[in-house]
Batch of 2 targets.
Target 1
Amino acid sequence: MTQNNQKEDILTTDAPSHRSQQVTRAHNQALILAAAEEEFVLQSYRGATMQGIADRAGLPKANVHYYFKNKKNLYMAVLRSIIEEWNDGLVTMTVDSDPKTVIEKFVRTKLHQAFVNPSRHKLFAIEVIGGAPHLHEFMSTTMKDWVNDKAQVMKEWHKQGKIGITDPLQLLILIWATTQRYAEFEIEIVGLMDKTAYDAEDEARAADFLVPFILRGCGLE
């Protein structure tokens, strides 16, 4: 066998192994992040432990340290994944996008996330209420840049006569407040509806009220 053929055989053999390692890594990281999210919600950052997170993930504690080094890194990874998921609904918006389509999609997406993953909203709320000690730098840099970018697009929409609002930041705050409330104050809301938990129709009921309400406020009836 020639030297070139030997190299080709090695590459062919190693490629599937490398892909398998990537799949395993992604799977383990997802397990750990999900377990950490639950642990932080139930025990708070101070009360959560790497061992508790490992137990919830069904993995050795050493694996948790291998992927995330320490509790602070893991906590930050959880918080950032939450924010990235929330912001994803506006990632592709441009000055050429249809405002009504973009805003409706964002409201419905944020509302769906609140009903499907209420613990994520509660964890974020706990961090912010506590003064955002772990997120302060992120919020004042990355998050602020994201907001400014989206606000600039909305201001351009206003200049083009596509939208009626002149203060995009207030619109974003309104959407965050109205959608996340369903998760953060779940107990209060289900109690006011004489229920013990949300049912399949509650998300649609909320969306059918909020979407046209917000669109009217934007001059997009």
Target 2
Amino acid sequence: MDIGIVSMRYAKALIEYAKGTGAEDRVYGELRMLERSFRKHPGLRDALDNPILKIKEKLALICTAAVGDGEVSREFSRFITLVLRNRREYYLQYIALTYLDLYRKLKHIGVGKLITAVPVSREVWERIRDSASTLLHARMELQTEVDPSIEGGFVFDINDFRLDASIATQLKRVKQQFIDKNRRIV
């Protein structure tokens, strides 16, 4: 079965169930952390694909990845148990991503990522987030990343739009223009 179809069905079912119990915000936080755990720890997927691990062990692993030492919501626990019993753990990361997208659409939340060569202050971060929020007429989730390879300036991704004002990109453009100009002369 197609990954997109399976993940959409499960994510829609979970969001409807969580909305019905009023726990959609908490489940969102748990799935957000679980998705981060999948990205940071590739071995998590390998562990879930391991047929030797029992459902209880996989459930404990997923719960730890979602909340650490804290207590997971009843809705999250029941949903993960369903996924494991149906042997759909392979799709869990995709289900989490789909749920996050559905939740953000439901709650009018935009997602942005700011990449800079040096860390930005909290004040700058808040100004950028607030400006983007005003432009989108939505609440913003803004992530920051430090990447010295951009040499200066910034790269700002917001939903499906990218503004690249990095020094590295500007230098590449100048270099390309210089190369193009020299080709025309020869």
